[in-house]
Design a protein that fits this description.
- The protein has 423 residues and is of the alpha+beta class.
- The chain folds into 2 domains: 208 residues, no CATH class; 175 residues, no CATH class.
- Helices cover 53% and strands 17% of the residues.
- It has 16 helices and 10 strands.
- It has a 6-stranded mixed barrel.
- Strand 2 and strand 3 form a beta hairpin.
- 35% of the residues are buried.
């Protein structure tokens, strides 16, 4: 009857919380308790912050990769003949009417050799229409010198990446010689030379663009003899992450011989590498939580050993094994889940303020984390995704909860007579 009184109901919860609050004379047990709580907190917080930073780098990389490209491109399938210019214009008008499409622009690419005595550099020459929507916005943002409006038909002007300009010693107003490999009607090689005046220099902080790309007017590139197979359409969508879905809407509109390729296919290798890194980092950091969970196991085992007399008294007064098990489950879950809650709070706080904390650390301790001489991205971005926070919290809760099972079962199986006999 005493065990069923209102004061002690439910018994397992009451006794378990009392064990958590009580000041034990066993200093080592108390120390392991705090270490376990701190370990769970630090592990969860570190996992949230690291994944948020990696999400930030992924978003920054995606933005830079797509800055001078497109969310999707319509091109001739391998081995298929490219349509005429008029057919490309008609197709662009049909695609522009698809919901979610915010810009369609033709382009023509050709591989060329850039020459500025005495240096030479292979580049990708991309012909664009500066007035076409969906083309100029990002190019203008990337411009460091010059004006995109100077790329008029017949002007023989070009805009190059800053790494191309550095390697060839170019500046705005200089002349660049381009050599394009073309074929004569009889199939013999007939390279063409053309002098272009540098109208501007752009930079997006990505070597693949800044070190290999040059822009010119579409008509100028066509007049150089660029192969029609390099012709295509750049398509931009209202939501870059929905590019595969929008591309699926466009695909039925394409005539035979054309295909649409979105950025998730073009840049698959980059983002697959990031996903693998995020997965491995998550597993490594989750080991911190696992170590803390083992500490909880050790702490509870010592508590069970220390409380053998209490367990025997509870069993003698009529407490069933399940109720004794609940006492130690309560104690372990309180410590583990409190650590998870503190870790989630700390992790979210740090992840939301990484861009403030990192500059403060750099100025306080006098070091540079992302040196501009080494890295293109000199700041540490952070993008908190609540989906990550939720699965991290659930995984940590399950891990810490599982760590309480063995000590609780051991306590429930303690024979009352044996516990009292040796006290």
């Amino acid at each position: 009857m005493w065990l069923n009184s209102r004061v002690f109901h439910p018994l397992a919860l009451f006794v378990g919380l009392r064990y958590v609050r009580a000041r034990t004379h066993k200093f080592f047990v108390s120390f392991i308790t705090w270490v376990s709580l701190a370990g769970v907190c630090v592990g969860v917080a570190a996992l949230i912050v690291i994944l948020s930073v990696m999400n930030g780098f992924q978003g920054e990389l995606r933005e830079r990769l797509l800055a001078l490209s497109a969310h999707a491109r319509v091109v001739a399938a391998q081995g298929a003949a490219a349509p005429a210019a008029a057919e490309w214009s008609a197709l662009a008008a049909r695609i522009r009417a698809v919901p979610g499409v915010v810009g369609v622009a033709p382009y023509l690419e050709a591989q060329a050799l850039a020459v500025h005595t005495p240096d030479m550099l292979p580049v990708t020459l991309r012909g664009i229409e500066p007035a076409a929507e969906g083309t100029v916005t990002e190019v203008v943002r990337a411009m460091r010198q010059g004006r995109l409006s100077e790329l008029t038909p017949g002007s023989d002007r070009a805009i190059v990446g800053d790494l191309v300009a550095q390697q060839l010693g170019l500046s705005v107003g200089d002349t660049l010689t381009l050599l394009l490999p073309t074929l004569a009607p009889d199939g013999t090689p007939a390279p063409k030379l053309r002098d272009l005046k540098i109208a501007g220099v752009f930079s997006i902080g990505l070597q693949e663009s800044d070190g290999t790309l040059a822009f010119a007017n579409l008509e100028d590139v066509r007049s150089l003899g660029a192969a029609p197979s390099g012709m295509g359409l750049h398509v931009r969508f209202s939501d870059v992450l929905a590019a595969p879905a929008f591309s699926a809407r466009i695909r039925p509109l394409l005539p035979r011989g054309l295909e649409i390729i979105d950025w998730t296919v073009d840049q698959a290798s980059y983002f697959r590498a990031i996903r693998i890194e995020k997965t491995m980092m998550s597993l490594i950091l989750m080991l911190i939580v696992a170590v803390a969970a083992f500490n909880i196991v050790a702490m509870l085992v010592m508590v069970v050993t220390d409380k053998r007399t209490d367990i025997a008294i509870l069993r003698t007064l009529g407490a069933p094994p399940r109720q004794v098990m609940g006492v130690f489950l309560t104690q372990g879950l309180t410590i583990g889940w409190l650590g998870v809650a503190l870790g989630v709070g700390l992790g979210v706080l740090l992840a939301r303020n990484v861009e403030t904390i990192v500059p403060w650390l750099q100025s306080t301790f006098g070091f540079q984390i992302m040196d501009a001489d080494v890295y293109y991205i000199t700041t540490i971005p952070s993008e908190l995704e609540w989906g990550n926070v939720i699965w991290i919290a659930i995984a940590a809760l399950v891990l810490t909860g599982a760590s309480t099972l063995y000590p609780a079962v051991r306590a429930a199986r303690t024979p009352p007579a044996d516990a009292l006999r040796y006290e």
